[in-house]
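Quick one, probably user error.
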C-alpha cells in the first residue's frame, strides 16, 4: 500500500517537473520570438532612418547644386576669354574686364583695397585665380564705398579699386561674370561674393592671391 502511494507521489512529481520544463521551454520560445521581433524592428527602423537621412541629404545637395547653378539676378556672363600672358595693354570688350589675356603678374587680392586705379591686366589675372574684383566710380556714395572696403578687407580672394570708366556706380567682376549695383546694401552683392569667390567659374582654383603686385 505504502509502495503504491510512493509511486503515485513520484509520478505526480515527475508530471509537475515535466509541466515546469514545458512551461520553461515555452517561455524561452516566447522570449526568443520577442527578441527576434525587436531586433527585426530595430534593423528595419535603422534602415528606414538611414534611407530617410540619405534621401534628405540627397535632396539638400540637389537643392544646393540648383542654387549654385542659378545666376545672380542681373549678372552678365562672358565666354571665350583668352588666357595668354602678355606685356602690352589689352583692348577688353567690357569695362571692367572680366577675363581675357592678361599680365603674368596678378594683383594681390587677399582682401586688398586700393585707393587708386590699378593695372587692369593684372586684375584680370587675379580673376583667373578665383578673385572677385569690386570697382566703383565717382557716382558711388561715400558710405557705400566705406561699406564695401570693410567687406573686401575681411574677404580673402577679393580686391577693390576705383574704376572711372564703368557704367554703374558699383560693379563686381569675377572670371566671365559681372554684376552692376547702385548700392552696397543690395543683397545681390553678398550673393555674388558667396557664389564667385573661388567659384566654379575659376580657371585656376586655389592659385595664390598674394605674392603678386600691388602697384
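Nope, works fine. Designed sequence:
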Amino acid at each position: 500500500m505504502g509502495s503504491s502511494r510512493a509511486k503515485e507521489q513520484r509520478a505526480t512529481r515527475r508530471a509537475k517537473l515535466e509541466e515546469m520544463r514545458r512551461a520553461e521551454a515555452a517561455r524561452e520560445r516566447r522570449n526568443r520570438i520577442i527578441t527576434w521581433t525587436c531586433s527585426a524592428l530595430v534593423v528595419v527602423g535603422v534602415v528606414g532612418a538611414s534611407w530617410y537621412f540619405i534621401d534628405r541629404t540627397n535632396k539638400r545637395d540637389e537643392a544646393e547644386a540648383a542654387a549654385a547653378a542659378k545666376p545672380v539676378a542681373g549678372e552678365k556672363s562672358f565666354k571665350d576669354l583668352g588666357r595668354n600672358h602678355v606685356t602690352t595693354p589689352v583692348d577688353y570688350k567690357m569695362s571692367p574686364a572680366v577675363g581675357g589675356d592678361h599680365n603674368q603678374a596678378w594683383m594681390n587680392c587677399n582682401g586688398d583695397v586700393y585707393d587708386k586705379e590699378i593695372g587692369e591686366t593684372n586684375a584680370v589675372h587675379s580673376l583667373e585665380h578665383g578673385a572677385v574684383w569690386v570697382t566703383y566710380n565717382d557716382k558711388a556714395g561715400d558710405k557705400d564705398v566705406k561699406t564695401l572696403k570693410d567687406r573686401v578687407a575681411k574677404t580673402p580672394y577679393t580686391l577693390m579699386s576705383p574704376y572711372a570708366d564703368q557704367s554703374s556706380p558699383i560693379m563686381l567682376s569675377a572670371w566671365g561674370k559681372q554684376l552692376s549695383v547702385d548700392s552696397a546694401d543690395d543683397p545681390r552683392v553678398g550673393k555674388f561674393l558667396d557664389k564667385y569667390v573661388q567659384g566654379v567659374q575659376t580657371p585656376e582654383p586655389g592659385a595664390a592671391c598674394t605674392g603678386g603686385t600691388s602697384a
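Residues 76-196 form a domain with the Glutaredoxin fold (CATH 3.40.30).
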